[in-house]
Every structure is written in C-alpha cells, then in structure tokens.
Design brief:
Elements: E1 6-9, H1 17-23, E2 28-33, H2 41-53, E3 60-63, E4 65-67, E5 70-71, H3 84-92, H4 94-114, E6 119-120, H5 144-160, E7 166-170, H6 195-206, E8 211-214, E9 218-219, E10 223-226, H7 231-238, E11 246-249, H8 263-273, E12 278-279, H9 287-293, H10 300-307, H11 317-322, H12 324-337
Parallel strand pairs: 1-2, 1-12, 2-3, 3-6, 7-8, 8-11
Antiparallel strand pairs: 4-5, 9-10
C-alpha cells in the first residue's frame, strides 16, 4: 500500500477506533500531531509507533515544531526560541548565527526523531516585513539573503539528525495583513515584486529542499485563486524554480481556503493544482466524506516524493539528552531564549 494524498490529525493521546479505520485507507498518507496529542515522552513515542505500525509503508507522522509561538511539543522538549532570534543574532555576529542555526535545526530534529516523528513543518521562509502578524517572529529575517543562509544551515542540522525540512509558506505569507487561518488573505503584489520573497526558495531548492508547504494566500495579480489551489503557482514552483520535492497544502480547513467551496472541493482543487498531499486538520467529521470523494485517486509520482520524507535513523530519548552533541547544541541555542522580545521591523 502506498502513501495517499490526505494528511489528517487525531483527537487525543491515543488512536480512536474510527481514526484507526481512516489510517488504514490507501487514500491517507500521514498524520499531523498537535499539543493535544502530547502527554509525555513515553506516551508520544508509543502513539507514533502505533501510527507507524498501522500499515506498510508506514504513514508519515509530522508536527509543527518551529520554535517560539509554534512549538507543539513542550516540556521536557527543549523550549526553542522564536526563529527571528536567529536573525537578530545574525545582525550582531553572522558566523555565530549560522552555527547556531545549524544547532537549532539539529536540536529540534533530534528530539522529534527521538519520539519517532518523521517531519517537522519548518522553517518559515517568509520574510519579516512587519505586515503579517501571523508570521511575525516566525520569520528568520527581513533580508532574503539572510533567510536563505540561516535556513540552509538549519536544514543541514536537521539533515544530520535524520530529518528533511519543509519550506513554508510558498510563495509567501509575509505581504498579507490578514491571517489565512481566520479570513481570506490577499497580497496584491505582482510577480516581479515578489522576487525577494521567492529568493530563499531558489536558494534551498538548489540545495535539495525536500518539501514545500503552499499557503492559502491569494495573489490576484498572478492568480485570484489561493496559491494552494493555483496551477499557476505550483507550476511556477515546479517549472521556473525547478522544485522536485513534495508539495503540501496548508490546512484546508482554514478560512483562507474556504473561498473554494466545501472541504471536499478544497481537497480536490489542491490535488488538481499539483499538491502531493492535502492537509486537513480539526475536522474529523469531514474525513469520511473527503475519503469517499477521493475514491480511485492515484498519483504514483506524488507517492514517490512523499516516501522520501520519512525520517532516517533514530535516537533514544535519555541517551540523546546525555550526549555531548545535545549539550553543545543546546548551549548554542539557549542564549536566544533569554533575549527580550522586540517589536517587528517596519
């Protein structure tokens, strides 16, 4: 059985009977975990192992473990600073910031791999333009060149720990004032004006970027449809930017995607536009009708791309935290956690 085109979530800290039935469907490709799914390291490790054991090849298990405001697994996981702290450090000491970015990527990925999770949806490649509150300090820097450098080092650290990275939110969420989680988000810039925003993707794609998450932001000067439903944008990603990895939609239950109709229609449009995996969160009542609407759907190329996102190697939680490499990485990253929160740059 291959990986299917739908990623879903779970209600709690164990797999419910109906959820287990959904996970056995060939139309499901993975699970995204949230804070509500995490009670302890032992419980989380067991939950991930049970998800992986449902079928072969095993489903992808993912999480948003960016740091700062978006870190689903907290204590006893290392409390990661907001990514923007790396950018502020870069302005003071660029070589140290690049070393710290690699340590950040390794530390995040090693801990997540220690509980069996395959992939964290990180880092944000959105620029810090001071416009999108939903992005804010999730962005590494306002300078595209710095974002590219720090993201490359982050990726190298994550790769060393056995994890691929996911660049998000393509093409950008940085220029949209609205939050696509709660309302339609629009960026009225044209393609030429977006070149700085696209530069980090060019940089990481040249260095083997494995996955991209596509936003629900609409760019009417390019295509009125949200990027996640746009053949134009995903075609640009594949063609002009030469991206060969997996394309994943942002959560299709978000308000920014509802301009395209009901959930079944949103999933269909995302897949038709070129997404390999459609993400559907916090909508358990919608999973059965979406699965029914996808009956017969097969995309062998997408299945191959998704299979490359499985984590490689593993760590044991206690031995990881006793290792010299963990102490070295945490010592580099810890000072960023104590820095005062600054205002967004205008």
């Amino acid at each position: 059985m291959s990986l299917g085109p739908l990623m879903i979530d779970l209600r709690g800290t164990t797999i419910a009977a109906d959820e287990r039935a959904w996970l056995t469907s060939p139309l499901v490709g993975g699970v995204i975990l949230f804070t509500r799914n995490f009670e302890s390291v032992a419980q989380l490790t067991q939950l991930v192992a049970e998800i992986h054991a449902v079928r072969q090849p095993s489903l992808l298990v993912t999480v948003d473990q960016e740091g700062g405001r978006v870190q689903r697994f907290r204590e006893p996981f290392f409390r990661l600073p907001p990514p923007r702290a790396l950018g502020r450090l870069y302005d003071e000491d660029a070589p140290l910031a690049e070393r710290t970015a690699a340590a950040f990527g390794w530390l995040m990925a090693a801990e997540v791999r220690a509980v069996g999770v395959d992939l964290s949806f990180a880092p944000c490649l959105d620029l810090d333009l001071g416009l999108a509150e939903v992005i804010g300090d999730r962005a590494l820097h306002h300078d595209a060149r710095v974002v590219g450098r720090l993201a490359r080092r982050f990726a190298a650290g994550a790769k060393k720990a056995g994890m691929a990275i996911t660049g998000k939110h393509f093409p950008t969420h940085a220029g949209a004032h609205s939050d696509s989680h709660t309302e339609l988000a629009v960026d009225r810039r044209g393609l030429d004006d977006l070149e700085r925003d696209l530069a980090p993707y060019r940089e990481l794609i040249r260095n083997g970027l494995a996955a991209v998450m596509v936003s629900h932001v609409s760019f009417p000067a390019v295509d009125a449809r949200p990027a996640s439903h746009s053949r134009t944008w995903i075609g640009y990603l594949r063609g002009e930017l030469g991206f060969k990895g997996a394309v994943i939609s942002d959560d299709l239950s978000m308000a920014g995607a509802d301009v395209s109709g009901g959930v079944e229609e949103r999933v269909r449009l995302a897949l038709e536009a070129g997404c390999d995996l459609a993400l559907l969160c916090n909508s358990p009542d919608k999973v059965p009708p979406v699965l029914a609407s996808l009956t017969g759907y097969v995309n062998p190329a997408a299945q191959l791309r998704l299979s490359r996102l499985h984590g490689r190697g593993s760590f044991e939680w206690e031995s990881l935290h006793a290792a010299a490499e963990w102490h070295k990485a945490s010592a580099l990253v810890a000072p960023l956690c104590a820095r005062p929160k600054l205002k967004l740059e205008g």
